[in-house]
Design brief:
Elements (H helix, E strand, L loop, with lengths): L1 H6 L12 H13 L1 H17 L7 E4 L14 E4 L8 E2 L12 E7 L8 H11 E10 L5 H9 L5
Parallel strand pairs: 1-2, 1-4, 2-3, 4-5
């Protein structure tokens, strides 16, 4: 799509969205833009403040370009493909996690990329401890976002 290519950041222009180097470059972009970085910091602080007061690990889905591990000690970082900073490569629809072992599953701008959210939520329910939470930040729906997500952003 020419418009997508035109609006792409110079560091990612022409790269495959599923190439791990694209994800690594996105982190560089976030880190280099103070306004964008502050948005992520606010999101991460919100997630941190909503974590349940339980013991046990927290799993982040779609950790790729983010830095939530700066906020949550011992965060398990994951992605659908191997890239820098990722501890586990996994599919959110078939989590390789023991039942009732997680205190939370967290994600930022990820849910709309999961092909079958019902399967994910079934897996999340299996993996969470009693009182555990799924915490996520997702784009809001508006006329503007529909245009952006229909024409400029790849999802599901």
């Amino acid at each position: 799509m020419p418009l997508r290519r035109l609006l792409a950041h110079p560091l990612t222009r022409g790269l495959d969205i599923d190439d791990p180097s694209t994800t690594a470059r996105r982190r560089t972009i976030i880190e280099s833009k103070p306004f964008l970085k502050r948005i992520y910091q606010e999101w991460y602080e919100t997630i941190l403040n909503q974590l349940p007061d339980l013991s046990g690990p927290v799993l982040e889905l779609g950790s790729g370009a983010g830095f939530l591990s700066d906020y949550i000690p011992r965060l398990i970082t994951s992605e659908i493909f191997n890239c820098p900073g990722i501890q586990v490569v996994l599919d959110a629809q078939a989590l390789p996690i023991a039942a009732a072992s997680l205190r939370a599953i967290v994600m930022t701008d990820v849910l709309h990329h999961i092909p079958d959210p019902t399967r994910f939520f079934s897996e999340a329910a299996r993996c969470l401890q009693v009182g555990g939470r799924v915490l996520l930040i997702e784009p809001w729906v508006s006329r503007w976002s529909r245009m952006v997500y229909t024409h400029l952003h790849r999802y599901r």
